[in-house]
Amino acid sequence: MTRGTGDEVTPSRRPTVLLVVALAVAALVAATAAAALATGGSGSVGGQPVGAPAAAGPGGARTALPGLVAASADPMLAGFATAKPVTGAVARVNGPFDDRFELSGVRFDGRAVSGALTVTSDVSALLELEVLAGFYDRSGGLLGTARWTHGAEDGEGHEHAGPPEERTEFTVTVPPGLRDRAVSAAVGVPVLVNE
Asked: What percentage of the chain has pLDDT greater than the value 70?
């Protein structure tokens, strides 16, 4: 009895069908066992339980990049340690974005450093900008730093018609504990993001 009618399994084909099903089940069991061994048998992948949603911050998904360490502080510029501006002056400290902007009208009045930054790299909306100022004593020693930031959220509710503004004015105030001793300053830009 080797032939049946239609889709009927005949007695001579039955061992072949059983063998295929047995091999499929064995492959599934092997794959499950391999996955369990790969996760240490914990039923987790990357420390997350299998089937559990990934941990996400308030803004969305969290991505893990092996070997990449998250920033532990605000960005600094190495040049602040060696800048020695003369009394009443403002020195410029090199940063990673110096080829994308120009500073103008930078001055120090004893209470704050102020000036304007003009983006020269392109004419697109400014998303993030950080101006970092270092304040120095009479001997040229760095007393401390302060920063002025402009972010995309700073512009919410302020509709602007026409092309993006390329010029941004900034003021970095001397921290209260340094006001009596700060006689000069240095500025640099550690953050500049535009569209």
From this structure: 56
